[in-house]
Amino acid sequence: MIKRALFGLLGAxxxxxxLGQAQASDDRKVILGTNNWAExxxxxxxxxLLLDTRGYDVELKxxxxxxxxxxxxxxxxxVTLELWLPTSDxxxxxxxxxxxxxxxxxxxxTGLGLVVPSYVDIDSIADLKGREDEFAYKGRPTVLxxxxxxxxxxxxxxxxxxxxxxxKQVNSSEPAMMSALSDAYSRQAPMLVTLxxxxxxxxxxxxxxxxxxxGIYGDxxxxxxxxxxxxxxxxxxxxxxxxxxxxxxxxxxxxxxxIESRGDPVEGAQAWIDEHPAQIERWLTAGGL
Length: 289
Fold this sequence. Notes:
Elements: H1 2-27, E1 29-34, H2 38-52, E2 57-62, H3 65-73, E3 79-85, H4 90-93, E4 100-108, E5 111-117, E6 136-137, E7 140-145, H5 151-162, E8 168-171, H6 174-186, E9 193-197, H7 201-204, E10 207-209, E11 222-228, H8 231-234, H9 236-244, H10 249-262, H11 265-275, H12 277-287
Parallel strand pairs: 1-2, 1-3, 7-8
Antiparallel strand pairs: 3-11, 4-11, 5-9, 5-10, 6-7
Helix pairs in contact: 2-10, 2-11, 9-12, 10-11
């Protein structure tokens, strides 16, 4: 009888300890929402590596850009690292203004618009009119873009209408778009794509934005990170570290280029971390990590 009671007590203690460990594990779990853009993949993998080494359990959840906002609002996602303001992502954010926390800027001075290789002798979107046939893709005049749900895709449709261009936007994935650009570049052929910076393409190829006299694509913007409500209270150290995080165009370009050259986001991000110990330490120290 005494033995049975003792075993029961020990079992209860073991169960309590296991539940305590599970709760502790849950308290360190962070769902980081990502979308398949080069800069997003790069910084998400970098922060996953940094936080995993500090005892957090970071899960990357890749979903469409627009769905990220709903996921934060419903608390299915804890945090995501890319919010372009004041223009590009404002329409996505507006329905969830009261359900999402917008945090500090980590990248300043983005670019966004229509891009061609520098060997193309057109410098303005307005100059495309009458020369659309030069930018044929699969037999028809085309602006090659990314997914239809992105802000840049909607802006590009507006640009085609406003500049009265006789061409269509073909929506694709970013990797497919970059593959087509790479092929055209190797042949010195004209190619018109939607692009933005930060992006590794500007480090690899000699490209230029077409001037936008109508101002469709707006002025330069900044990239913030955002979270579900109360993330700052639940994860104060991560919040402080992310608010201390800033990257220059060159720093982000080298991170993305390293990932692209290695063909592996984890290897590329780890290599960049290893090469920038002082910078990494500054961010983590600011958070108390």
